[in-house]
Description:
The protein is mostly helical. It has helices spanning 53-67, 69-75, 81-88, 92-108, 110-120, 122-142, 146-174, 180-187, 189-208, 212-232, 238-241, 267-276, 286-292, 295-326, 330-335, 338-365, 383-410, 416-443, 448-477, 479-514; strands spanning 15-19, 368-372.
Amino acid sequence: MSQEVKDKGPQEVVHTIELGSLGGSSSSVSLQPLSQTPSEAPPPPPPHTVLTERKKIMTIAIAAIVGFLAPVSANIYYPAIDQLSDDLHVSVSKINLTITTYMIFQGVAPLVTGSISDVYGRRPTMLVCLITYLAVNIGLALQDNYIALIVLRTFQSCGSSAISVVGMAVTADVVTRAERGKYMIYSSLGITMGPALGPIIGGVLAQFLDWQSIFWFLAIFAAAMIVLILVCFPETCRMVVGNGSIPAPRWNRPLIPIVEPSAYEGAEAAKKELEDGPKPRRPSPIDSIKIALEKETGAIIAFCSILYCGYFAVLSSLSSELGEKYNYNSLQIGLCYIPYGIGSLTSRWTVGRFVDWNFRRVGRQHGLEVANNRQMDLLEFPLEKARLQITLPMVYLSCICIIGYGWVMNYRTHVAGPLVMLFFTAHTISGATSILVTLLIDCHVKRAATVTASNTMFRCFLGAGAVAAAVPIIDAIGMGWMGTLIAVLWAVGSILLWGVLLWGHDYRKKLAGRV
């Protein structure tokens, strides 16, 4: 909806941003001066997506469930480490090595699949990765030696991590920036809940069945996801279907039609928009590395990696800390991850809505009117301010929570103490990381999977080091000082975010001018 400013002299320039609404189909936000008379006003741009609100939520939900596979696969056999060590006749340290190698390759695979999905589509990329993942899990359930375990875990990591990156990009395809904060929390639920629910599921299966049942569970889950995608998951990649009004190739359509036939009436206009826009580049693993070399993007990815180091250090050490200090068995340890999962889940209702509210507030401060169903050019919008004004307080709250968690665990208080602090730590970390991922995608909306792959690569590489170092550091200085050390690293690292807040917008405009 636009405004006309009437005056005797030259008309005042008014900016309009139109965003996706909760009740209708989501679209993007356009930012343009209004100096025309009503008769000269251009026709409104097409909606950001032709999917209805219900179908949009369904699509994001499927992507989030599929994204659950990567983190749950990494952590599901934490409670079964002792069983694996006994059955395969190797040390616990060697079993832990499979976790480290998993995380390393978890960062490598998306370098390829991220850029491929940005050009050729989300749906075929997800299906190929899921079929590979299914076959590998069957192999893991049937193997009985350490070499096979570590090799197959590597392939399992490649398949699952590629899926999660593509799933995050689906949200960028169908949701506008103005409401992306709310939906990114939904789309990242699988990634944030996986580390918490994985040990619970693994603990139950290992306690009542055996470690092989863990991989059979993952294989069955993957098969169900393949069926779900084949039946009702539409292609969303904007390089392939635009806003959904361009029909996907027949082989790339779900068995149940998701897009209404009437939506294809705008296919010609959407095709012309794609043809007039920048041409997709040939997919390359180097794309994810190049994108991290941009100053603003690199700073955000660097801090995300620092944040995830502490996140992985806490989760990977929780099992041993509970076993040592409280003498818990594998099932009890698994259940203690529930507060982390709930904390991650509840961040959607607090952080997600604050992010979208602040986006609109910053828009009003800069003379930008918020309306529905359009995507905007963010070149003149202080996007960094809108996102990081919420992120930075969450980071500092995370520092306080991780210190509290470390010291209550260190002094062996009642188990309720560490679990309560674990809840708040999860709530704040999940909120901060979700906003940062949202900001990355906002800045690279046409290469959402590529920038997500870049972020995944660096956080997994550093996270693998954090997992390997966590237990030795705790043994040397104790859990209390470990939590304090993590908080100091986060606080110092937040300088990167302050740099993005102060200079990121100017750099983004200069970069756009060069391009």
